[in-house]
Amino acid sequence: MGSRKGGAVASGRTAGQARWGLRTAAVLVLALLIQAGWVIRPAWACGCGAMVPADQATLRVGEETSAVSWDGVTERIIMRLSVSGDAAEAAWIMPVPSRATLDLGDAQLFDRLERVVEPVEKTRNYFWPRDGDWPFTGGGGDGDSSRSGSGAAPGAPPVDVLASGTLGPFEFAQLAATDPNALAAWLGDNGFRMPDGMAESLRPYVEQRWEYVAVRLTPAAAGERDAARGPGHKQTLGGELDPLQLTFASDRLVYPMRLSQRATSGQTLNLFVFAPHRVEAVADIGGGGKTELLYAGRPDPEHVGWPGTPGSASYLTAMTRPLPKPSTITADFEFRAAPSDKRFQRVDYTDELLTVGGVPVWLVVVFGPLLALGVGLVVWARRKHERRMAAYPPPPPLRPL
């Protein structure tokens, strides 16, 4: 299926003028993104794009959490990365199927979503005694928890700079490319040196005429700082970065993952997907992990608090996916409507011994019949004695002479 292309070239321009304007924009982006030059080590890819540290530094993306909203026409992604390492700055490259609008995301959104999808607490009774219950001793029991178009227009320049600017602590550029090697070369010329083989990872996006958002990250964009280490200490990217929001036209619900093939360490991807119905993956993407469903249902919009979420995209499917072998990822995540909108909520059980009036039921069941038998024998013996006494009354007492 195809994806809609957003944006247009300004009316009245000739093709040559348009190219000249784009090349001028490229020079401006170059001035923004190259300051004193970057010597860059290979990228640490993340699920939704690629992260490139600078200054011979290291940067590891340990966890990626994204909220995705799709109403059949427009897709929106808010992404938050948790990073560690000693990089003072880095670049993040994100492929998108059409022209994207870039904004800062709501930093509190994921806290609210975590509360929506957290397991409910329930009590579950068990019959037979366990460790910690009389007559046993020891530890207690534990609770349980469960294509768009093909190719580029003839004569188009290999790399176009579509837009550039600043957004809060971020600097960004939006790019389009008709050749994966040209895109990799352009990124390298502008301080974003890709690791070996990145051109091959980019090729499917180039062939589908996708675009790219390149964002420069600095410690000002990080949620945690190094100021506590003492004055003069070099600030580095660390902790949870401020979330970014991308909005673009798409007629399919897709989450880019191919660039994660270049990651050198395992990662965890958490997805909150808002769509008209419950969703499921079209196919497995590889990566060595298995997707775990966390929640499925229509939460109260007030509890979600994601302004602008289309009402038609009110069904939330939350999932987590470990990626211990990112090099084996073969495709992007693409989702379709599940067979049903059956609701799912995880449950955390607290196991308790079944009692009645404070007395364990197993004691009543096991020893109750014995007690009843004992009481019955006593009653039977007493009645038998009474009948015998009635049949053979004792002789009257002897009178004195």
TrEMBL record:
InterPro entries: DUF2330
Domain of life (superkingdom): Bacteria
Keyword entries, A-Z: Membrane, Transmembrane, Transmembrane helix
Chain segments carrying region Disordered: 133-160
Membrane-spanning intervals of the chain: 20-40, 359-380
Protein name, entry field: DUF2330 domain-containing protein
Originating organism: Streptodolium elevatio
